Queue: 2 jobs
Job 1
Amino acid sequence: MITKRIIPCLDVKNGRVVKGVNFLGLADVSSPVELASYYSNSGADELVFYDITASAEGRSLFTDILVEAASKIFIPLTVGGGINTVEDFDRVLNCGADKVSVNSGAIKNPNLIRDAAIKYGNQCVVLSADIKRVDGVFRVFAKGGRENTGMEAISWIKRCVDMGAGEVVVNSIDTDGVKNGFDIEMLDAVCNAVNVPVIASGGAGSKEDFVTLFKTLDKVDAGLAASVFHFGEIEISDLKKTLRDNGITVRI
């Protein structure tokens, strides 16, 4: 059985980690550098760093904070926010990232995924898809969940994987921050459409939510969460013990 990964997510705005509900009502949490170091030492398998307003504000990602955070950790780091060109990939990788997450930049220019995969390899290119139900249809949203692109999400994800995305983060706007469990229906649809690692994001409220995720959807490779980790509601070491006790393979 494939080892399941547990991934904390740092949503960074104005140099601080923030968290909201359904992508709205953002509240200050902590320093990204301090949190990155804490998670690296607490058993996290990877770390995701999103500069969540870079695309909406039309600017580049905060590289100074990224460099400092990357220097404090010893686990793989995925970075996203304001990634619009292959040069942006290059800049972020030079700051210490292992993988680069692209969302709005790929929506504006889908060839970005293909070009980056050719230059850096599929394993470096992560598609982050913010998805919300609109009239019963999964739709792709851009600019940190602010803008409905009108695109059907599953076909979009499949297209991006076909172009070279080596991993997909599925961000459910409907369940984000609600803490009632992951969006199993949405994740199942994505897993059945692609053959690359799928990371579930949005909805974790308890250790049992992770157990349900991995027990229900064996194809999901990782569970990503933010506030339940940031506020100490779930300790990663406790979560991994619970997963292992439930027959789910994790790295202890």
Job 2
Amino acid sequence: MNEITITRNNHLIDPTLSIWGWEISVYLFLGGLVAGMMILSGYFLYRERHKQFITSCTVVPLIGIVLLSVGMFALFLDLEHKLYTWRMYTTFQPTSPMSWGAWILLLVYPAMFAMLLIKVPGFIPKKFTLLFKWSEYINNNKRVLQSIGIANMVVGSGLGIYTGVLLSSYGARPLWNSSILGILFLVSGLSTASALVHMIAKDKEESRLLARADNLFILFELLILGLFIINLLSSTQAHINAVKIILTGPYAAGFWVFVVGLGLVVPLLIQSLAVSHRIKHTAVAPILVIVGGLLLRFVIVNAGLLSHWTKVIGLE
């Protein structure tokens, strides 16, 4: 068996035993989750569900801002030259995925903040009269409301796809070198977002709607995951060796058991029974979907770091 030694921060790492790159995994997961939340809340706003007092589209933006900030902090921890991060925002490089991501993130916060103003959170003091005036203006203008909804759907889609493009742009890692990765992470983000909002939604009808939507997203995710694998298996020998890391290699158990089995197939079966009124809706399936979405990033990131153009890891 061929082996390679990887160094990070001047420390030797055994890639078959260590789970590293957790900061990027968490960032990609939270970025995809927030992207899905933006798309869902934007759609609900466009369909004027904000008129219902207990709709989730007035709560989701605040949760999204918090989660994305946590994800940004995780990304910051992974940066080698932290003090120079601000330079990303002084220029725009059209051919750089990182540059696109930095500027997309600049649009995410205003879009979510505009959504948040539809119903100003109760903990904000009344003395901030300007916020309440903006809220009143937004709620009295249907075109503005729909524009905010569309903006969240568009920016959310960009954020969700970017989380996959960020990896696929690294041609040195064959496992990541697939254009399907962006769509996979976008659909996974929609699935995890549907699961999360399904749990926190106070409106039972909205909760059931999100459960049905999540079932559809899981089916699409399984389909796209299958296409991702087929795409790599039908490519060069380096890509075949790379995908074998998750199919039969060091990360096979994590991929098949926790990502595919417990993260997709089992919650799909549970939620299918729930939406058909054969069993009650519980938090079990949504939690499995959310954990599965996180583990999908961990597996893809870590297995991708093991993949190499010339050496095979744990396959012989």
